[in-house]
Amino acid sequence: MISSSGIPAVVPPGRLAESDQPVLPLDGGLELRPWQLTDADADALLAAGQDPDISRWNLFSLADRAEARARIERIHARRRAETGAIWAIAPHGGAAVGLAGLNDVDLAAGTAEILYWVLPPARGTGLAVQAARRLSRWALDDLGLHRLILCHSVANPASCRVAEKAGFSYEGTQRSAPLHADGWHDQHLHARVATDPD
Fold first, then answer.
1. Which of 94, 87, 178, 174 is nearest to 132 (CA)?
2. Which of 26, 60, 138, 159 could crosslink 30 through cysteines, CB 3.0-4.6 Å?
3. What is the extent of the structural domain holding 77?
4. Cα 164 from chain centroid?
């Protein structure tokens, strides 16, 4: 497909929506897999939406299982629309312990934003780094994107460490970028491009 500027799309339309969402293996018997409309996955998402740290840094909250199920349905709808692709981080055959995904996907431009969170029992294990690294490799190598960004509030140094360990270079600070419950935050912008080494 050629855009109105005459530049070919980096990734052709349909590439994300017309194929099955892959299961991506991680170390330790874990994997990135599609979210499922099960009570276990809805409850994991609900726990995340009620966790103060996840709600603070990821700017979402959920009131009940019905809202969690509706959010899972939106996750699948965004993939079909090719605007996002979200995975559950889970033990093989088990309930989700975290999330990793691509937000603001622009196939024509070859760009997306990486996002992630992990529930409290899985924090401090390197799981966020492993998931961000694995998803980045899939997005750049298999899907064919060219550039990924990872943004976080400057008040969240844990995410800065995840970005660095996952191979995202620091590119600068965006002033008053996201609005949080306690006001505007500056945020760090990290990025990784297809030509960056592992």
1. 87
2. 26
3. 24-193
4. 16
CATH code: domain of residue 52: 3.40.630.30
Residue entry with tokens 């969170």? 117
**Cα separation of 58 and 185, whole Å?**
13
Residue 18 lies in a domain: no
Looking at the structure of the chain, the number of domains it has is 1
DSSP states of 121-180? GGTTSSHHHHHHHHHHHIIIIII--SEEEEEEETT-HHHHHHHHHTTPEEEEEETT-SEE
**Residue 133 structure tokens:** 């690294």
**Integer Cα distance of 172 and 159 in angstroms:** 15
pTM above 0.85, yes or no: yes
